[in-house]
Amino acid sequence: MRDTSIDRIMTINPVMIGPGDSAAKARELLKTSAIHHLPVVENGRLVGIVSSADLLKLYVLDQEVALSALATVSQIMELKPVVLTATATLRDAAEKLMSGGFHALPVVDDDRNLVGIVTSVDLIDALLKSLPVGDGSIVQAPEHSLSDLMEDNRLMLQACDAAELYVRSGHAEHEHSVLIKCLADLRRHKESVDV
């Protein structure tokens, strides 16, 4: 397991943000995507990372001045995040996560272009899949990656929200088209994962 390539567990095409975007936008992305880390990218290259903890610190300070409304991502991001290369192993990721007070590692190529992200949750998930269960057998990893399962979940929640809106709306034409689009997105994603 320790020599397993990081690309087996990393999230490819992670949600990201630009340095000039607002802290409020970062907060909204973290909330709607159900994640805790946003790589900060400019022209495809990683320039920093912002976490939910960074935003929490900003909002704690936001007592008398609307700092959160004025702050940009570049003002609150970690400028020199610890990174992994695409050729790194799970052991490399674990060692880097153990050495610092952070829980995510952007994965970059030789030109510092973002290719993915690995979190402590990804590593724990991989570890759990390699440990024997009560009868001594190893639980087999699912056919699909964690990021695929998370995308399935996001699309299903989106379809459920659209269905609820459709039902409550009295079958309005706009809500019907939103529901059809969400279901089509979910179907397309499932077909691409099952190939």
Description:
- The chain is built from eight helices and five strands, in the order H-E-E-H-H-H-E-H-E-E-H-H-H.
- The chain is α+β, with helices and mostly antiparallel strands and 195 residues long.
- Strand 1 (37-42) and strand 2 form a beta hairpin.
Q: Total helix count?
A: 8
By CATH, the topology of the largest domain is CBS-domain
Q: What best-fitting shape do the alpha-carbon axes yield?
A: globular
User: How is the main sheet built?
Assistant: 3 strands, mixed
Find the count of extended strands (DSSP E, 2+ residues).
Answer: 5
Rounded to the nearest angstrom, the distance between the terminal CA atoms is 26 Å
CATH class of the largest domain: Alpha Beta
Secondary-structure element series:
HEEHHHEHEEHHH
CATH architecture of the largest domain: Roll
Record the SSE blueprint:
Layout: H1 23-33, E1 37-42, E2 45-51, H2 52-61, H3 67-70, H4 73-76, E3 84-85, H5 90-99, E4 104-108, E5 114-119, H6 120-130, H7 146-168, H8 173-194
Parallel strand pairs: 3-4
Antiparallel strand pairs: 1-2, 4-5
Helix pairs in contact: 7-8
How would you describe this structure in keywords?
2 domains, three-stranded mixed sheet, alpha+beta, 195 residues, globular, 49% helix, CBS-domain, two-stranded antiparallel ribbon, 8 helices
